[in-house]
Write a structure and sequence with these properties.
CATH class of the largest domain: Alpha Beta
CATH topology of the largest domain: Rossmann fold
CATH architecture of the largest domain: 3-Layer(aba) Sandwich
Strand content: 15-25%
Oligomer: single chain
InterPro entries: HTH_LacI (IPR000843), LacI/GalR-like_sensor (IPR046335), Lambda_DNA-bd_dom_sf (IPR010982), Peripla_BP_I (IPR028082)
Protein name: LacI family DNA-binding transcriptional regulator
Largest sheet: 6 strands, parallel
GO molecular function: DNA-binding transcription factor activity; transcription cis-regulatory region binding
Pfam family, one: LacI
Keywords: DNA-binding, Transcription, Transcription regulation
Radius of gyration: 22 Å
């Protein structure tokens, strides 16, 4: 656990100066550069004792947490549920009230909130994005990078994760690489899916001359649609992939069931790696190799970014990228 002395050493100031800056001592005369250096040291060393005092001025105010799904869909997807829990837990610790706005909520009243945290990315329409740009308070995106649009963002490094999976398949002798990707639309463009994992996969597979459009199978991020997609598409493939990247654990569970019914062995016939490393991954049969994503941490970081923007509204927007980790289990040839 970092101490005031650790922060002082990193920032190049005295412990007394650190204490007074973190407690917002109005009688202290230091430059903005020094203040920012101290706060950056606190962030780098994960020092959080100061946060509740720092944001006391926002007690009584309310932030909105915007979700693209309804409550039932959220509970069925542990990925987004975990992100949301991280946000609400951290906002509560920091003394800021919050309200949840699910699909169908009235966005015209978003300007009444002190700030907004938006979970997701491509699920939102151009009209909704326009509303977000016009809000007077800060807007933070989590699980997507919208820094180019001027929004502070917290997201995970899925690009490197996808590349690591493809490289793992190749290193284990599997080069017929397909993907069970996700899209929420019933009228999706199979060559231009909203699933950012697909976009990363397509780019990297094409660079290695391994991309086969026929080996892209699409579900809607649920176990049921993963099962249905594999059950329908697999028998129709003249040549079949020998490894499969799956957009999330839920669809991978459905795919496992479909493969059992089709008498396709995992991993002997098809090596599978999915995303999110939720609890179900390790208890699947076979246990799923999966990319661990720090969903709860993403949520907590997004809450801290929002509070930071409330405290420093003129600060330039920035993005935080969290690393992922590939957990290898029995569903893949390792």
């Amino acid at each position: 656990m970092a101490t005031i002395r650790d922060l002082a050493k990193r920032a190049g100031v005295s412990p007394a100066t650190v204490s007074r800056i973190l407690n917002y001592d109005s009688t202290l005369s230091v430059s903005d550069e020094t203040r920012n250096r101290v706060f950056q040291a606190a962030e780098d060393l994960n020092y959080t004792k100061h946060l509740s005092k720092k944001y006391q001025r926002f007690s009584g105010k309310t932030a909105a947490i915007v979700l693209w799904c309804d409550p039932e869909e959220e509970l069925n997807d542990l990925y987004y549920y975990s992100i949301r829990l991280g946000i609400t837990e951290r906002l509560t610790e920091l003394g800021l009230k919050h309200e949840l706005l699910y699909a169908g909520a009235n966005w015209e009243e978003l300007d009444k909130y002190a700030g907004v945290i938006v979970i997701g990315s491509d699920q939102y329409s151009a009209g909704q994005m326009s509303i977000l740009r016009q809000l007077p308070g800060p807007v933070v995106f989590v699980d997507s990078n919208h820094l180019e649009d001027g929004f502070p963002s917290v997201y995970s490094d899925f690009r490197s994760a996808v590349e690591e999976i493809v490289d793992h398949f190749i290193q284990t002798g599997r080069t017929k690489i397909g993907m069970l990707a996700g899209d929420l639309s019933d009228h999706y463009d199979k060559d231009n899916l909203t699933d950012f994992r697909f976009r990363n996969f397509k780019r990297y597979a094409q660079a290695k001359d391994l991309y086969q459009p026929d080996w892209i199978i699409v579900g809607a991020f649920t176990s049921e649609t993963g099962y249905e997609a594999i059950k329908l598409a697999w028998p129709k493939l003249a040549e079949k992939p020998n490894c499969l990247l799956v957009a999330n654990d839920a669809m991978a569970i459905g795919a496992l069931k479909a493969f059992r019914e089709l008498h396709v062995r995992v991993p002997e016939d098809v090596s599978m790696i999915s995303f999110n490393d939720t609890t179900v991954a390790q208890f699947a049969n076979p246990a799923l190799s999966s990319v661990k994503v720090e969903t709860n941490e993403m949520g907590k970081r997004a809450a801290e970014v929002l509070l930071n923007r409330l405290e420093q509204p003129d600060r330039l927007p920035y993005a935080l990228q969290l690393l992922t980790k590939l957990i290898l289990r029995q569903s893949s040839i390792n």
